[in-house]
Specification:
The structure is a single chain. This protein is α+β, with helices and mostly antiparallel strands. It is built from 21 helices and 24 strands. The strands form six sheets. Strands 1, 2, 3, 6, 12, 13 and 14 form a seven-stranded mixed beta sheet that branches. A seven-stranded mixed beta sheet has the order 17-18-16-15-22-23-24, with helices on both faces. A hairpin with a 7-residue loop joins strand 17 and strand 18. Helix 14 crosses helix 19 and helix 17 crosses helix 21. The longest helix has 24 residues. The termini are far apart. The mean pLDDT is 95. One of its GO terms (molecular function) is D-xylulokinase activity. Monomer. Pfam families: FGGY_C, FGGY_N.
Length: 536
């Protein structure tokens, strides 16, 4: 897609699990260029499946760091061949898959700062990494290190209060601890440890980019209130770690001008600014332009909630991160494993496999389902840890089955009540100005969205979010350029395409669900305690 001449713009990058993607966004916030490089198909020499290497133990999952570097070479060459005018780029920012880590070998900064514009990056950076395959978010091999970290700070809840999450295997601090314990030589030979996001920013800077507060919150190392590295956590993971990480910065920081390598090789202007890169989830929050009191729900294979928080209450479930667009606020992520697959199963069992009949069941049953409540967890749920199907009548007596229409409404109401209860458990509160943004497969079903609006008592909007991390990164580049923390992100992004209104709360919905929510929470606790009893 060739670029129209003279169009000043910002670039948004996304270094995700399966591809590197780029969008160019003009001053009116219209996307006018996009391209991508898919690791498996465009770089088959690295032998990845889904962009990763799954090791023999099935727990260790890594990606080749030079694959990411070569993907950047490839996409920039594609842009150049298409006639893209790099001299129009005012600033760039980007996103990286969260939690992954890159280990720069001693001496790599000298190579980064003296790149030759005659050669591709991959050729020049081959010897710059102390480990060639980097641990990524899919890795679950660090259970021992997670327990060590929690023990060092006084337990899982204490770690969550400090860093926003209990210890998770994919979180970077635990990955660094594993490397130090199993390969101390590689650790000591690393002069800098980057997240995927700050690694990508470093490629553009020609020097080490700091880790930003928001992506740094996914490491089990950053004190999210004070926004400094936790000395207790650093000490529990590895020696001299603070020096290897560098100081974290606000996510809207301009971290420097683009390296002369890109000026000479591609024609960027030397004034082009690099705004701190962040994680893909925080960048998506920016791309969806959530504001105080808003949340987004992705209704996919698993359902994910993105929450904008003012006063976070860290818990043993979910994750709290520093907010990527306003340093005074926070964001939270909650994942629910039983999403579209259980919706499809109940559709098949209770609506003859027809979404049309499924919708008619929602239309023909009353809000509150006459007091019938259901819990549907065909696989072990994350939030909370429950498996099985449980149905309760209006007297809180467990029953074995519901009529088809009641079953359908019990499923959808139950899924959304659970989301509200667990969101409020992290400090989220519905406000008069709250907007809900729905994405993913089920967001195309207006009747499901009506239940969402009713349960939360807020209007539901839909928009295309297929490139939200990329587009959010371009918006964040404009924000950094405009002054970052001193300027409201909403002001910078106000001319972006608006989402479409899909559902508003039905009259009387708030009274119905305010009465049902405490019952649902109480029954959830009853199921949890019954599930734990045989284990005690």
């Amino acid at each position: 897609m060739a670029e129209r001449a003279g169009r000043r713009c910002c670039l948004g990058w996304d270094f995700s699990t399966q591809q590197v993607k780029i969008v160019a966004v003009d001053a009116e916030l219209n996307v006018f260029y996009e391209d991508s490089v898919h690791f498996d198909t465009d770089l088959p020499e690295f032998g990845t499946q889904g962009g990763v290497h799954v090791h023999k133990d099935r727990l260790t999952v890594t990606s080749p760091v030079l694959m990411w570097v070569q993907a950047l070479d490839l996409i920039l060459e594609k842009m150049k061949a298409s006639g893209f005018d790099f001299s129009q780029v005012l600033a760039l920012s980007g996103a990286g898959q969260q939690h992954g880590s890159v280990y720069w070998k001693t001496g790599a900064s000298l190579v980064l700062s003296s790149l030759s514009p005659a050669l591709p990056l991959c050729q020049q950076l081959q010897a710059c990494f102390s480990i060639s395959d980097c641990p990524i978010w899919m890795d679950s091999s660090t259970t021992a290190q997670c327990r060590q970290l929690e023990a060092a700070v006084g337990g899982a809840r204490a770690l969550s209060c400090l860093t926003g999450s209990r210890a998770y295997e994919r979180f970077t601090g635990n990955q660094i601890a594993k490397l130090f314990q199993q390969n101390p030589e590689a650790y000591s030979n690393s002069e800098r440890i980057s997240l995927v996001s700050s690694f990508a920013a470093s490629l553009f800077l020609g020097g080490y980019s700091p880790i930003d507060y928001s992506d740094g919150s996914g490491m089990n190392l950053l004190q999210i209130q004070e926004k400094v590295w936790s000395q207790a956590c650093l000490g529990a993971c590895a020696p001299d770690l603070e020096e290897k990480l560098g100081s974290p910065v606000p996510s809207c920081s301009v971290v420097g001008a683009i390296s002369s390598y890109y000026v000479q090789r591609y024609g960027f202007l030397p004034t082009c600014q690099v705004v701190a890169f962040t994680g893909d989830n925080p960048a998506s929050l920016a791309g969806m332009r959530l504001e105080e009191g808003d949340f987004a729900v992705s209704l996919g294979t698993s359902d994910t909630l993105f929450l904008w928080l003012q006063e976070p209450m860290p818990a043993l479930e979910g994750h709290i991160f520093c907010n990527p667009v306003d340093v005074q606020y926070y964001m939270a992520l909650l994942c629910f494993k039983n999403g579209s697959l259980i919706r499809e199963k109940i559709r098949d069992e209770s609506a003859s496999g027809s979404w049309n009949k499924f919708s008619k069941a929602l239309q023909s049953t009353e809000m509150g389902n006459n007091g019938n409540l259901g819990f549907y967890f065909d696989v072990m749920e994350i939030t909370p840890e429950i498996i099985g199907r449980h149905r309760f009548n209006a007297e809180n007596i467990e029953v074995s089955a519901f009529p088809g229409d009641v079953e359908i409404r019990a499923l959808i109401e139950g899924q959304f009540m659970a989301k509200r209860i667990h969101a409020e458990g992290l400090g989220y509160r519905v406000m008069p100005k709250t907007k809900i943004l729905a994405t993913g497969g089920a967001s195309h079903n207006k009747d499901i969205l009506q239940v969402l609006a009713d349960v939360f008592g807020a209007p539901v909007y839909v928009m295309d979010t297929s490139s939200s991390a990329c587009v959010g990164s371009a918006y964040r580049a404009f924000h950094g350029l405009a002054g970052g923390a001193g300027v409201a992100f909403s002001e910078v992004a106000k001319s972006a395409p608006r989402p479409s209104l899909a559902a508003t709360p039905s009259p009387g919905a708030s009274q119905v669900y305010e009465a049902l929510l405490p019952r649902y929470a109480e029954l959830e606790q009853r199921i949890l305690s019954q599930a734990r009893r045989p284990l005690e």
